[in-house]
Amino acid sequence: NGKHRLTDDVERIVQEHLQYVREDVSNGWDLIHQDGEMKVYRREVEENGIVVDPLKCFHTIKGVTGHEICRYFWEFQYRMEWETTLDSTKIIEALDPDTVIFFQLHKRVWPAAQRDSCFWSHIRCISNSDEDQPTWLVVNYTTPHPLAPIKSPQVRLVANVALICETIISEPPLNPKDIKRENIQCKLTYVAFVNPGGWVPSAALRGVAKREYPRFLKRFTSYVVEQTRNKPILF
Ligand SMILES: O=S(=O)(CCO)c1ccc(-c2ccc(C3CCCC3)c([C@@H]3C[C@@H]3c3ccccn3)c2)cc1
Questions:
Q1: Is the C-beta atom of 199 inside 6 A of ligand 1?
Q2: Residue 54 burial (10 A CB sphere; 0-12, 13-18, 19+)
Q3: CB neighbourhood size of 231 (10 A)
Q4: d(CA 110, CA 107)
Q5: How far does residue 103's CA lie from ligand 1's centre (Å)?
Q6: Tell me: the pLDDT tens digits for 21-71?
Q7: How remote is the CA of residue 170 from the centroid of ligand 1, in Å?
Q8: Can you count the helices (H) and strands (E) in the chain?
Q9: Separation of 15 CA from ligand 1 center, angstroms?
């Protein structure tokens, strides 16, 4: 795809996530939610009295590929069907076929002021030659943009989010065309560094995050399973 003004930023952040995804959660992370295959971890971090807790989620979803999960997460047209925490979302610039810039209005979480966000969103396939299936990822990273002016009373969120997915094929048939959905699963890692961009009561924000991230990931992954059920597998 064509080079653009954010090519170097995108490359740097993607590489950082590819390193970070391997870091294990054994020290310093608290398991805050478990539901079947889904495990959600959080580290408690504050910057100048503002809660900026990193979040890391591991989940295995049967019947879908990593490409399908990343595609539905990245594509703009499906977002309002699974994202219940947004008032609006729109693309304000397309930098290349895999990189767009979104502007979003997030639903207000009382008593905090309403948040908005502007980030570049990039989808990519990383073919790791040794394994059979490539890794797919999406990164959402805050960026300023002239079409997303910061307008009071909204507070601009600062977010760095990645969804990194592997596809597992159990008992691969000789002919790949014979692969069925019951033989595939997606192992996903979701990491989110969200700075609310202004003061929010710590306990309130931690409570919202603890409730909303698992709910959001469960709803999103269930949505993709439903949408792909009777469709040809997208590897
Ligand atoms: O994965 S994404 O890129 C999907 C694209 O939309 C993404 C997910 C979540 C957020 C997010 C935005 C606002 C807030 C708070 C901050 C103060 C008041 C609202 C939070 C806090 C953590 C809690 C939260 C978690 C999940 C969903 C909603 N709420 C998170 C941003 C981007």
A1: no
A2: middle
A3: 9
A4: 9
A5: 13
A6: 988 999 999 999 999 999 999 999 999 999 999 999 999 999 999 999 999
A7: 34
A8: 4, 12
A9: 23
Q: What is the per-residue pLDDT for 132? A: 78
Helix (H), strand (E) at residue 81:
helix 79-82
Which amino acid belongs to residue 213? Y
DSSP output for 87-125: EEEEEEEEEETTEEEEEEEEPP-TTSPPEEEEEEEEEEE
Q: Is 115 in the pocket of ligand 1 (CB under 6 A)?
A: yes
Does the Cβ of 95 fall within 6 Å of ligand 1?
Answer: no
Contact 126, 138 (CB under 8 A): no
- Indicate the pLDDT class of residue 1, thresholds 50, 70 and 90: low
The CA-atom distances, in angstroms, between 66 and each of 18, 58, 73, 157 are 15, 13, 11, 27
Q: Is ligand 1 within 6 A of the CB of residue 134?
A: no
List the single range of 104-113, 129-138, 175-184 with lowest mean pLDDT: 129-138
Q: Give 132 Cα–ligand 1 centroid separation in angstroms.
A: 33
Question: CB atoms < 10 A from the CB of 224, how many?
Answer: 22
% of the chain at pLDDT higher than 90? 91
Task: Report pLDDT for 87.
Answer: 97
Q: Is it the case that residue 131 has pLDDT exceeding 80?
A: no
* Residue with CA nearest ligand 1 atom 15: 196
Q: Is the CB of 83 under 6 A from ligand 1?
A: yes
